[in-house]
């Protein structure tokens, strides 16, 4: 659990995970553009999410494509869902 919590502690990683959480597959280049991050920074963050078991990857030519880990334990998925719900609620309160 600590690895998962450490992985989602970083705002950029949470934003990347949120993009992937909705489903589908995204290459590093797409995440870089959406999150305004360099390739090296994005790859480093995605490795952290992969090491925590939150995402899976596959190589596609020169790019690596990431997606939500569909084999994630339901309890861990519930934690991630709760974090995203709390952030959305906080954003609505601030706005």
Defining key terms:
64% helix, globular, 95 residues, 3 strands, 3-stranded antiparallel beta sheet, alpha+beta, 5 helices
Please specify the SSE layout and strand pairing.
Blueprint: H1 2-9, H2 11-21, E1 25-27, H3 28-35, H4 39-51, E2 55-60, E3 63-68, H5 74-94
Helix pairs in contact: 1-4, 2-4, 3-4
Short description:
The chain is of the alpha+beta class. It has helices at residues 2-9, 11-21, 28-35, 39-51, 74-94; strands at residues 25-27, 55-60, 63-68. 64% of the residues lie in helices and 16% in strands.
Q: How many strands, what sense, and barrel or not for the largest sheet? A: 3 strands, antiparallel
Uncertain spans, ≥5 residues at pLDDT below 50?
none
Helical stretch tally: 5
Shape: globular
Helical residues, percent: 55-70%
Q: Compute the average pLDDT.
A: 93
Query: Per DSSP, what share of the residues sits in E-state strands of 2 or more residues?
Result: 15-25%
Structural class: alpha+beta
| Gyration radius, in Å | 13 Å
The strands making up the biggest β-sheet line up spatially as: 1-3-2
What is the tally of beta strands? Answer: 3
Distance between the termini: 32 Å
Helix/strand order, N-terminal first = HHEHHEEH
